[in-house]
Amino acid sequence: MRKTLLPYPLGDIVFAGTVSDGSIIMRSVSQQRPYQQVGIKIRQLILETPYRSGQRLPPEREIADMLDVSRTVVREALIMLEIEGLIEVRRGAGIYVVEHKNPLRIEEVNTHFCNDAGPFEQLQARQLLESNIAEFAALQATREDIVKMRQALLLEERELASCSLENSESGDMHFHLAIAEATHNSMLVELFRQSWQWRENNPMWIQLHSHLGDTLYRKAWLIDHRQILAALIKKDARAAKLAMWQHLENVKQRLLEFSNVDDLDFDGYLFDSWPLAKTDG
């Protein structure tokens, strides 16, 4: 089925083009993740439409409506294009085309991103995995495990006090790792390590995280960690699970706020998110 995008005045640039299910565009992205497919479509429209460096792209809401996808998928697509050097995201100001001499070809995009999940998809997976890890750890943790968690929090506090973003997440990682190790289940520990390694190596996560230039979010997450630890010390499995779930819900919310460039009140998600109340019972 063919979908024709007629000339459409979007922001400062008029997008025009045709996307067909049988075209080379669709063949090249059919096995890719939604944000990659959308990123390729946006990229193709930009490259095929006359523009000048510094021109503003349409708001993400209009792009989402035009391509019939969620706005969070559009956000992840824009992060991909920012990594490529095709656009610049200015928080509160919009999305702008930048001068680029050697953009990636469409057929190179799949190799460049290795079909990695987007950052919000990964956070949802962590939420499901780590909330259950915390629940189990509450029942299994020893005194030595609790000591390791406390040491990780002390490291996190020192990193926060130093006000340095360099190596600022060692305490964060060690705290979550200590909880996984407190399950005394090597498979769960390995699953956690793999998810964290993805986080450290994924260019989209790195790009999104680069926009977090202050320590406010780290202070909020440290408070979350203390609440998780309090539940683990009490061996309250239900409270530990809910505290971890809510912590990662808070992380998603904060990253969405920082990634959004044209609507500071938008709180939509790529996947449905369940607040604390929905996990109760």
TrEMBL record:
What are the HTH gntR-type domain coordinates in residue numbering? Answer: 32-100
**Annotated CDD domains:** WHTH_GntR
Which GO molecular-function terms appear in the entry? DNA binding; DNA-binding transcription factor activity
Q: Tell me, what's a Pfam family for it? A: FCD
Q: Which SMART domains match?
A: FCD, HTH_GNTR
Q: Which domain of life is it from?
A: Bacteria
Q: Which SUPFAM superfamilies match?
A: GntR ligand-binding domain-like, Winged helix' DNA-binding domain
> Could you list the residue ranges that cross the membrane?
none
Q: Which UniProt keywords apply?
A: DNA-binding, Transcription, Transcription regulation
Query: What's the protein name?
Result: UxuR
Question: What organism is this sequence from?
Answer: Pantoea ananatis (strain LMG 20103)
